[in-house]
Amino acid sequence: MEYEFLKSLEVIFIASAAVILLLYKLKIPSLIGFIVAGIIIGPYGIGLIKDVHFIQILAEIGVILLLFTIGIEFSLTKLFRIKKTVLGGGGAQVFFTIIASAAITYVAIGDINKAIFFGFLYALSSTAIVLKLLAERGEIDSPHGHTMVGILIFQDLCIVPLMLLIPVLSGDGIDILDIGAKMGTAVLIIFIVLLSSRWIVPALLHQVVRTRSRELFLTTVILLCLGIALLTSRFGLSLALGAFLAGLIISESEYAHQALSDILPFKDSFMGLFFVSIGMLMNTEFVVDNGIRIAEVVALIFGLKIITGIVSALLIGNALRTSVMTGLGLAQIGEFSFVLAIAGKASGLISEEFYQLFLSSSVVTMILTPFMMNAAPMISE
């Protein structure tokens, strides 16, 4: 088992290096190289890797570390500064996207519950991809960067209610008290985690630094990151949101810069595996047989999400240029939509055929995102 796991990692890194080098010469972002490598070596490609379970675990760690570093760089002060963006912009984007998607889907399939579920799938954007691209371009602190981050935070907060509403849409019934308890617990956990940034974590890091052990400091930082991520996940929130909160907590301490420099090498290594795992989801045979349908769905997703993103950004007072860049940046489907799709398929809200169509279209939107963001400044002029 261990040998197969190491062999899989070796294959991934060899394929990724080869594809990224080739695409680099064509001036195509490395993110695309990782996804293409995953398509080639995955179970639907040449099949060098058939069991992607271990890869998905490592990929999840990559997402956690990415959001953790973004949280450290962002800080609680900046988060409170954009609270209007989180609640107003994020709320508008999710609401408008669900309503518009549901209306279009209802016309196509004639089932209101399934139409609303598709609205859920389309409402979320990729936190991992957008934040990585913003970080690489140095645009986290730009007006459109702040707007995108705020909307993405709200989307992550919506994961709990969206998951809880799936049984309602599938006709399995609903327990109002259970939903209320879970939502209340989630809010309480976020409050406790943020409260700890003022007293507990700074005191802990101060004691660790006094030992002058770099290894102990790094271990403590990773423990805080993974521990808080697991805690929030335990109460229904995403691991990514928990990692972001952990980063915000450390950002308020005087040791934030040291924590960031220690974590960055690990983040970059694991993050590549996340994008490889996305590529492995692509069923190439289905894509070949349904290329036109996939292109139509991708065009619909982009058109819909660009418009709702622009409108949402404008509603909270952004300039047109910032709003257009926000809409283009958030036009892809998010990785957590895959989790919703799996839950929906198990509940009968989406058939296997539509699941594959959604999956393939979503991966294509992710692949095209770097090009969209590169073109955004020119388009928004």
Question: Any key phrases for this structure?
Answer:
Na+/H+ antiporter like fold; 381 residues; 19 helices
Per the CATH scheme, the topology name is Na+/H+ antiporter like fold
Output the CATH class name: Mainly Alpha
Q: Helix content range of the residues, please?
A: over 70%
**CATH-scheme architecture:** Up-down Bundle
How much strand?
under 5%
Number of strands: 0
Oligomeric state of this protein: single chain
Radius of gyration equals: 20 Å
Major pleated sheet: none
Calculate the terminal CA-CA distance, rounded to whole Å.
54 Å
Which whole number gives the mean pLDDT? 85
Low-confidence stretches: none
In sequence order, what are the helices and strands, one letter per element?
A: HHHHHHHHHHHHHHHHHHH
Shape: globular
Number of discrete domains: 1
Discrete helix count: 19
SSE class: mainly alpha
Word description of this protein:
The chain is mainly alpha-helical and 381 residues long. The protein has one domain (61-273, 288-380): Na+/H+ antiporter like fold. Helix content is 81%, strand content 0%. It has helices spanning 2-25, 30-41, 53-74, 76-81, 83-109, 112-123, 127-136, 143-157, 159-169, 176-195, 200-210, 214-234, 239-251, 256-280, 284-289, 291-315, 320-329, 336-346, 352-380. The longest helix has 29 residues, at 352-380. The mean pLDDT is 85.
Give the SSE map.
Layout: H1 2-25, H2 30-41, H3 53-74, H4 76-81, H5 83-109, H6 112-123, H7 127-136, H8 143-157, H9 159-169, H10 176-195, H11 200-210, H12 214-234, H13 239-251, H14 256-280, H15 284-289, H16 291-315, H17 320-329, H18 336-346, H19 352-380
